[in-house]
Amino acid sequence: MLPGEIKQNNINTETIATESINCISTRTNSISINTTDSFDEYETPIEYNVQRKLVNRYVQLISISGIIGTALFVSIGKALYHGGSGSLLLGFAIWCLPILAITVSTAEMVCYLPINSPFLRMAQRCCDKSLGRMAAWNFWFLQCVQIPFEIVAVNTIIHYWRTDYSPAIPLCVQVALYLLISIFAVRYYGEIEFWLALWKIILAVGLFFFTLITMCGGNPLRDAYGFRNFKKNSFKKYYPTGIAPTDPNHGEGVYIFQGLLACIIQGSFTIAGPEYVSMIAGETKTPRKILPIAFKQVFIRLTVLFLGGCLCIGIVCNSTDPSLTAAINESRPGAGSSPYVIAMNNLKIKVLPDIVNAALITAAFSAGNAYTYCSSRSLYGMALDGYVPKIFTKCNRYGVPIYCVLVSLCWGALSFLQLGENSAIVLNWIINFITASQLINFFILCIIYLKFRASYNYQKFKMGVKLPDLPFKSWGQPYTALFGCVCTFVMIFLQGYSVFFKENWNIRDFLFCYIMVFIDIGIYLFYKLFYFKMGRNDKFVPLDKVDLITGLKEIELHELDHGFDRFRFFYNGEITNGSNSIIMEQDPSIIADNKKKVLERFNIEEVERLDSCDNNSISNRT
């Protein structure tokens, strides 16, 4: 057994042919060879595992705009109001750098081992059990809390048109739709998210064209305003206490910097990282072929959608616009607070604000749907590692962890808080929770990756363990990951700094900003103490004991079945290559030999059973 290897249960027991069925072990912890000419999908038993049904086009669109909600189009106006157009663009650009560092680090780890909840489960393998549990609970909580956030967001968007209805109606409808989408095969979820993601891209690109056309004079006022708004108040003073100093020139640079800092903090909430692409790894076909491309799409999301959106917002709307000021102070619902809609109203453009508001509904709904998926799959990964009862590993006949979906959707009930409070207040509460939890998740991601990379290099190059090459290689490691780690750690404490001003101090705001820090530390210490009292070892895993093997067997055979001919790359020529194209064009005997060599890498016993079978029945692979 290779260092760190753990036998994995609940893996598929397909047969290779009628003649050899009695010669191959059917234990649930083994994999047999499928040599049928149909190359049916390699799946684990439906009652134990999810299914790899997400194809390339789903994954690529989801990676670009899967979890982009209303923040890019509406909430971003708050950053513009606080910092100005220049600070907005610069602040988001600054925060994109650590997000890019975290993305490429996570991509390297997830593409190597694209299992269910990969980065969460790698926390236990690479670091220790307590950190693994803390990371899992923090991420599950983060995803679950964002479900009611997007549900409330949809209701506030509807309020743009009318308020004479019970908020419970859209809330219940949304939860029901999320449940309906989530209980069927993941390919239906992928298809729905594909079109919703495409619609969000169309919305973003459409607003880019709106900016370009109107700034050149293509508007009812014939006003070619160009970069007028960028030239005026581009770096705005921000007073966290809401009280301007008596001398307006006193500490001018400090207040401008605080405006920039407010934009960076808003960016830490708005700009999502690589976690969503990571969570779909366990249900992606040929993941080591598709996921490296998907992670590269994150660069497009960062530069085109987020930075392009910041540039356009700074062009169309001035940070001192009276309508924007009133919208922020009054917490206007839906598109009423969007800088784009404010610009449309200023330019006397009719109908288009209603179209944008309708598009925002689909954006918020799509984001909530994505969070439902991520929360259920993270809970499923926790169940696989024994963090929660085994019942949560049960999947329906479509390969959906149904109990995980039901429990995660229960968090949608938090959206009913807005029945007794102003919905904007509820949104602000949730945003404060989300920001801290998301930053903690990014910090943990960097820690896990640093240990993964060190273990991989130690085992492969110093111990001589035959590990696959990395399908995705990031640049500048480990310094890139260290940069992301330091930035997120600092931002965890900066994101709520304004609460410490004497004029702003109150216990409620402090808890909303920092309670997740105390909760996560408490979870980690609780499990450390628990394992100590139980007499179980929970020391930091040494480099030579990190498990980098478990799960590879299923992935190798799955990709062989789906014609992904990259084994010469992964195994340095150890696997036979009949051609340079796809496996289905090769001779069937070469395919079976490749599968046999994969099994030989992981399970010598099963290969010996295979060799003892009748040679004629094995060679009949057509």
TrEMBL record:
One of its GO terms (molecular function) is amino acid transmembrane transporter activity. Its main location: membrane. One of its GO terms (cellular component) is membrane. The chain crosses the membrane at residues 58-80, 92-115, 136-161, 167-189, 201-221, 255-277, 298-316, 355-374, 395-417, 429-450, 479-501, 507-527. Residues 59-530 form the Amino acid permease/ SLC12A domain. Keywords: Membrane, Transmembrane, Transmembrane helix. It is a multi-pass membrane protein. Pfam families: AA_permease. The keyword tRNA-binding does not apply. The keyword Membrane applies. It is found in: Membrane. This is Related to General amino acid permease AGP2.
